[in-house]
Amino acid sequence: MSWTSICAYDALLPERGVCALVDGVQVALFRTYEGELYALSNLDPFSGAYVLSRGIVGTRRGEPTVASPLHKQVFSLVTGLCLDDESVSVPVYAVRAEGGYVEVTVRQLVEAGV
Amino acid sequence: MNRIVVVGYGPTAHRLVETLTSRGFAGTVTVIGEEPRPAYDRVALTSYLSGTTVEDLTYDVPAGVVTRLNTRVTGIDRDARRVVLADGGAEPYDVLVLATGSAPFVPPVPGAEHAFVYRTIEDLDAIRVAAKDAVEGVVVGGGLLGLEAADALRALGLKAHIVEMSPWLMPRQVDEGGGSVLKSHIEGLGLSVHAGAGVQEIVADDEGQVTGLRKPDGSLVQAQVVVFSAGIRPRDELARSSGLDVGPRGGIVVDSAMRTSDPSIYAIGECALSGGMVYGLVGPCNTMAEVAADRIMGGSAAFEGADLSTKLKLLGVEVAQFGAMEGALDVTYMDPVGGVYKKLFISDDARTLLGGICVGDASPYTSLRPFVGKELPAAPSDLLFSGAGASLDLPDEAQVCSCNNVCAGDIRSAIADKGVTDVPGIKACTRAGTTCGSCVPMLKQLLEKSGVEVSKALCEHFTYSRAELFDIVRVRGITTFSELIGQHGQGRGCDICKPAVASILASLHNGHVLEGERAALQDTNDAFLANIQKNGTYSVVPRIPGGEITPDKLIVIGEVARDFGLYTKITGGQRIDLFGARVEQLPEIWRRLVDAGFESGHAYGKALRTVKSCVGSTWCRYGVQDSVGMAIGLELRYRGLRSPHKLKSAVSGCARECAEARSKDFGIIATEQGWNLYVGGNGGFKPRHADLLATDLTTDELIRTIDRFLMFYIRTADRLQRTATWIESLDGGLDYLREVIMNDSLGICADLDAQMNHHVATYADEWQATLDDPEKLSRFVSFVNAPGVPDPSIVFGSERGQIRPVMAP
Ligand code: SRM
Ligand SMILES: Cc1cc2nc3c(=O)[nH]c(=O)nc-3n(C[C@H](O)[C@H](O)[C@H](O)COP(=O)(O)OP(=O)(O)OC[C@H]3O[C@@H](n4cnc5c(N)ncnc54)[C@H](O)[C@@H]3O)c2cc1C
Ligand code: SF4
Ligand code: FES
């Protein structure tokens, strides 16, 4: 598995996302209040715009989530599943903090619908 | 008995076929109606003029029912048991139901052919067209429907007159004392009332264009639109021509089973004459429909007359009548200054309530109507003061919804047995409240009294409402979301509570919205201080206070738009919107704008948007005050003020109202003496004109009143509740608001003033502050690992010489 280094861990604000360009793929990266990292595709499947990294981070019944900034559908940061419409999901990527840096790999961990 | 034919497809016919289908009627049901659509909600007809669509008004045809629309029945062949249609066809029946309703009565005066009536969608379409070129309109008839029609003319922008034959308005519902109070209310709203006057003729010019209405005394009421609302006549022509019994003054005679003199023909609704009465209200008509359905299906229900109580709110005036309109004793409360008149009729032993009349305050209607015919629950004088009745416990058999004949007991059992917890639930379960809506306050009361916890929780993270959270934050001096959710909530928040709390923190402390932890609470618009567009780009709206701008500033906007290739448009808010900026371009664009003296326009925030202005007395020949100066002053005072929803305002220089101030959350119209302040208006999804809060204010009084209005709204409104719905939700409405902010009835005005002064003193332009802070600026990139790279997914095409977004297929 090849990891790409993105930015310093401290550059990520808790409870917000940023977008990274990794081998031409737009990856939305999130750091939660507890310090966990999550990575999803930046493409909002409902609107076709690359914006998920700019959504509001939160929880739904304990599960960490992001709400699309365009029409507010909520996605699980863990599985990429849309919690408002379970027939839709977005790809989830592997992400880790390594030596103070955030690293991502765009080999997909969870395929849509799996 | 398996072929039922219904003639007429109005609300009564609808209730009949709905009842039949829901009870599993096995035969065929055919409804023949002459109107071009299935039955619609005639009670709500007037809302069609304010934007409710025909689709919204029209009822669904129950499954299995056959309809023949646009089809008039011209005769009944009782021997052959079939109805004859205008198109020459026929329809055989085993049971025939006449539900032909009634037609407006048009008195046979010369020129009457030029007048309109007010009953169908087509009537309203015609009135709307005629009103376009008209200035004044007159309604003949000052009853319930006449006043509604006059209000509609007024809403269409006409100066409206009402001509009423009786010495006072609404003679069927109120007595002379109530009529005089009603008249002063209505005149206060700018309508002219001509009571005790008849109609001589409708005057028209050679082209048939109406010019006015002549009264018997020879005087002319000028009007280009005349609407007759002088009573209704049952449509009994089919019954007459086929030899069924009809009453001496019209109406198809029926027995308590709703059967006519031919046992296989029923008549229901406004065409029926039952016990010597024709009923012109939906409540009794619905009951008739249910009785007929029951009989058709072999039951034994009977119609024994009905309650004719009415309550309505027209032109902002509440009028109500219940029970009898006379009694051995009566007790009257009259306040001509406050415009309130209330009267109760009681039995000679002073124990039994017989009825009542209310004008200006209908609270006794809601609380006392169920006690008609029963022992008075308290001393009459106590009952007449508003609020006194609210704590009364209704007996189970008391009727709460007269439109649908639902009693308090039915509602209690829906709550107790079916687990209903809110008003929509009661509506779905019992039908109460679904017709005229006047019983909805009662439904709420019953819910509250039953002890059901009506959830006002913001979301799964907070069990509090926005107003409660506001108080918690204010009283406990909380400054961060983490503190608030840690101490008073659960989980980590979501897209509902985070922006709501961000707004509360901003209203109270006025710090920068992107400071520290607050940055993570904002919606994308506030996070990038710009409005997101469908392709992920943003728009830029600099503030242009009052819509006034110098040529130099206009040139800067033009240059910025040209240099960054932005789509440029004049907005509906008297300013300019630049579209298509990528996140990394926003700081450069704003650097240029801020250097030229522009500030954020907060188009992205739940905050003050614009204060529109007309040109006013400086230039305009009609202007009586400097509306531009006032608008600029107000926009600068309230800029940046975060609120539960966006805030809009406008200032007009005279009553011609070119700035459309009455469509704003707070609107100001200049008078010779000062300023009139209107509140609670909006355009948007459900347009509403603002209500007059105070008149002829000085500039200082005006600003103080607006300060308090805004701060009280910010403190107590719900999340995403605009001022209009907020005012409607206040117990006591506009009068209560006036008490709180003009007479300081809660003793909080000093607090509200201090809060607004804090806002004004600490305002800073948030774009300037962002440009000054490298940390905040660093977030304006498309890619954190490639800050200079533009988002390759954003593609533009061109249209009319400017860019437009192109979405990937
Ligand atoms: C740009 C503009 C249309 C235009 O090209 O003219 C506009 C554009 C938007 N309007 Fe509007 N409205 C604009 C004037 C209006 C007006 C007219 C006015 O203000 O005089 C109205 C009706 C008046 C009113 O608000 O009462 C209006 C009623 C709405 C509504 C419905 C509000 C309601 O209470 O029903 C929304 C939705 C909302 O706010 O929730 C809305 C929301 C929006 C949003 C913010 C939707 C969004 O979230 O993307 C649009 C984005 C603006 C942008 O990207 O810059 N816009 N919008 C106008 C900006 C005015 C300005 O200079 O700030
Ligand atoms: C503007 C307005 C506001 C109102 N507000 C209230 C209110 O607040 N509260 C209240 O209780 N009531 C109110 N009413 C009265 C209420 O609308 C009526 O009581 C109700 O519509 C009666 O229903 P109906 O079906 O009996 O008659 P209608 O609604 O008159 O329906 C009869 C239908 O039969 C059709 N028809 C007649 N003859 C034939 C024929 N020969 N062949 C085919 N079709 C035929 C007619 O075209 C019509 O569509 C209001 C009425 C109006 C006009
Ligand atoms: S509202 Fe009055 S003052 Fe203002 S522009 Fe119109 S006519 Fe002139
Ligand atoms: S009284 Fe009209 S809906 Fe209940």
Automatic annotation (TrEMBL), chain A:
Rieske domain residues: 4-104
UniProt cross-references to Pfam families, sorted A to Z: Rieske_2
Gene Ontology molecular function: any one: nitrite reductase [NAD(P)H] activity
GO biological process assignments: nitrate assimilation
PROSITE patterns tied to this protein: NIRD (PS51300), RIESKE (PS51296)
Origin: domain of life: Bacteria
InterPro entries, alphabetized: NirD, Rieske-like_NirD, Rieske_2Fe-2S, Rieske_2Fe-2S_sf
Record-linked CDD domains: Rieske_NirD
Keywords assigned: 2Fe-2S, Iron, Iron-sulfur, Metal-binding, Nitrate assimilation, Oxidoreductase
PANTHER family hit by this protein: NITRITE REDUCTASE (NADH) SMALL SUBUNIT, PTHR40562
Designated name of the protein: Nitrite reductase (NADH) small subunit
Protein source organism: Nonomuraea fuscirosea
Automatic annotation (TrEMBL), chain B:
Keyword terms, alphabetized: 2Fe-2S, 4Fe-4S, FAD, Flavoprotein, Heme, Iron, Iron-sulfur, Metal-binding, Nitrate assimilation, Oxidoreductase, Thioether bond
Binding-site residues for [4Fe-4S] cluster, renumbered to this chain: C614, C620, C654, C658
Enzymatic class: oxidoreductase
Keyword hit for Calcium: no
Domain BFD-like [2Fe-2S]-binding: 400-448
Signal peptide: none
Coiled coil, from the record: none
Nitrite/Sulfite reductase ferredoxin-like domain location: 533-594
Binding locations of siroheme: C658
Catalysis: reaction(s): hydrogen sulfide + 6 oxidized [2Fe-2S]-[ferredoxin] + 3 H2O = sulfite + 6 reduced [2Fe-2S]-[ferredoxin] + 7 H(+)
EC number: 1.8.7.1
Cofactor mode of binding and number, as noted: Binds 1 [4Fe-4S] cluster per subunit. Binds 1 siroheme per subunit.
Gene Ontology process terms (BP): energy derivation by oxidation of organic compounds; nitrate assimilation
SUPFAM superfamilies: FAD/NAD(P)-binding domain (SSF51905), Nitrite and sulphite reductase 4Fe-4S domain-like (SSF56014), Nitrite/Sulfite reductase N-terminal domain-like (SSF55124)
Cofactors: FAD; [2Fe-2S] cluster; [4Fe-4S] cluster; siroheme
Record-annotated Nitrite/sulphite reductase 4Fe-4S domain positions: 605-742
Description of how the protein assembles with itself and partners: Homodimer which associates with NirD.
The family this protein is said to belong to: Belongs to the nitrite and sulfite reductase 4Fe-4S domain family.
Protein name in the entry: assimilatory sulfite reductase (ferredoxin)
Species in which this protein is naturally found: Nonomuraea fuscirosea
